[in-house]
């Protein structure tokens, strides 16, 4: 896969790219038709290819078959961004910062849910400890997206959700997905 030039820094050397710079990278990369067309798509499961992200970030090109999704998760201390290159993705997120540790389940207030549609050419940046799920709700069309995280993902925490109850189910480390 082709490498993409890092986004310019806005004065935080050592801290890596900002969420806005990661989003700029994701949007520019998602607009590369040759890169997007090179991703193998699988009708049964998500596919992914690692990309060279800006400023030492971790980046991925991901294919989403119809009806697929991530489940509720966060990216720990990493900030990130993603942009839809083809199809449409839906993001459900929580508008509240969760404690970073020391809990197994939390009861959420009723006003913390957010939802957004991200058609091709649209993206989303987020900060640390952002809890969300991303879905391709189409019954027939694949979606493709570009994701970038900094610092590179130290772990992903996976959650189950039943109404207002959010429960930590699993912690994945890089060896689980690379």
Q: How does this structure look, described?
A:
This protein has 178 residues and is mainly beta. It has a single domain, classed as Jelly Rolls (Sandwich). The strands form 3 sheets. Strands 1-2-10-4-8 form a 5-stranded antiparallel sheet, covered by helices on one side. A 4-stranded antiparallel sheet has the order 3-11-12-6, with no helix packed on it. The N terminus is likely disordered.
CATH architecture: Sandwich
Q: List segments where confidence is low: pLDDT < 50 over at least 5 consecutive residues.
A: 1-13
In CATH, what is the class? Mainly Beta
The largest sheet, given as strand count, sense and whether it forms a barrel, is: 5 strands, antiparallel
Structural class label? mainly beta
Taken together, the total number of domains comes to: 1
CATH topology-level fold name: Jelly Rolls
Shape: globular
Keywords:
178 residues; 5-stranded antiparallel sheet; 4-stranded antiparallel sheet; 2 helices
In short:
This protein has 178 residues and is mainly beta. It contains 2 helices and 12 strands, in the order ααββββββββββββ.
SSE topology sketch:
Blueprint: H1 19-30, H2 33-38, E1 47-52, E2 58-64, E3 72-74, E4 79-86, E5 88-94, E6 105-107, E7 113-119, E8 123-126, E9 132-135, E10 143-150, E11 156-162, E12 165-172
Antiparallel strand pairs: 1-2, 2-10, 3-11, 4-8, 4-10, 5-7, 5-9, 6-12, 11-12
